[in-house]
Automatic annotation (TrEMBL):
The organism's place on the tree of life at top rank: Bacteria
Protein name, as recorded: Short-chain dehydrogenase
Coiled-coil residues: none
Matching InterPro entries: NAD(P)-bd_dom_sf, SDR_enzymes, SDR_fam
Database matches in SUPFAM superfamilies: NAD(P)-binding Rossmann-fold domains
GO MF annotations in UniProt: oxidoreductase activity, acting on the CH-OH group of donors, NAD or NADP as acceptor
Organism the protein comes from: Ectopseudomonas toyotomiensis
Span of the signal peptide: none
Length: 228
């Protein structure tokens, strides 16, 4: 009997992260998933076999504590899903330094810190890191789709991931920048065409196929490549 595949999902209290935890668990994966506070554990704890951990992604101490708790546990996949929409005004004119700091720290800088710190926990021979990006982060395709500040934060994520990949000397490392589609979550809103289940089923199929595939891809939940 072979061991089930294992995944660490960062940011799984609700929305797509919670949906991913449920779908990976349903497909037999060993799932560890994080929430920011203990009070948010209940939906994940209701999923059979899911281990719940705690991480505030923008807090270096919280990341260090998670790394210590994980110790030398190995994952086939680390999926950094957590993200924020940014200020509702979506306006460069109105944006405060605090709003921009929080948006870019959460969506662009913190995901890379997580990946760098937890890289020793990724299976070296076939491991895959997935970062939740967005089509809105595409320089070619994202402009004009709305939410420019958020899109810029995801473009920054895409850039930092490209930089990260170039510093890695493991030729077997796989990295995916994922667009989940436009999905009905707290962030996606009620008008989005996709439900969480459809998006997550697609992403789980894509991630399952990408394990063991080295190199960097920017793609959507159906496997379509996206222009940078
Ligand atoms: N929905 C869409 O249409 C869509 C499209 C493209 C990309 N995305 C991306 O997909 C990801 C998930 O989005 P969603 O629609 O599921 O959003 P959501 O419902 O707002 O959920 C966001 C998740 O990220 C967590 N999170 C936010 N900041 C965090 C931090 N500093 N540390 C740890 N966790 C944090 C939240 O935790 P709390 O509950 O504690 O706030 C929550 O679990 C995001 O990266 C988003 O940018 C979404």
């Amino acid at each position: 009997m072979t061991a089930p595949r294992s995944i660490l999902i960062i940011g799984a209290s609700r929305g797509l992260g919670l949906g991913l935890a449920g779908e990976f668990a349903a497909q037999g994966w060993a799932v560890t998933a994080t929430v920011r506070s203990a009070a948010q554990q209940a939906p994940l704890q209701a999923l059979p076999g899911v281990r719940v951990e705690q991480l505030e992604m923008t807090d270096p101490d919280s990341l260090e504590q998670l790394a210590n708790r994980l110790n030398d546990q190995q994952f086939d996949v680390i999926f950094v899903n957590a993200g924020v929409a940014g200020p509702e005004h979506h306006s460069t004119a109105q944006a405060s330094a605090e709003e921009m700091g929080q948006l870019f720290l959460t969506n662009a800088v913190a995901p890379l810190r997580v990946a760098e710190r937890l890289l020793p926990n990724l299976a070296a021979e076939h491991g895959l890191i997935v970062f939740m990006s967005s089509i809105l982060g595409s320089i070619e395709a994202g402009a004009g789709l709305g939410m420019p500040l958020y899109g810029a934060s995801k473009a920054a994520l895409n850039h930092l991931v490209q930089c990260f990949v170039r510093t890695q000397d493991n030729p077997k490392l796989g990295v995916v920048l994922m667009h989940p589609g436009w999905v009905r979550t707290d962030m996606g809103g009620a008008d989005a065409p996709l439900d969480i289940d459809s998006s997550c089923k697609g992403m789980v199929a894509q991630v399952s196929a990408a394990v063991g595939q080295p190199g960097l891809r920017y793609q959507d939940y159906e496997g379509n490549p996206l222009p940078w």
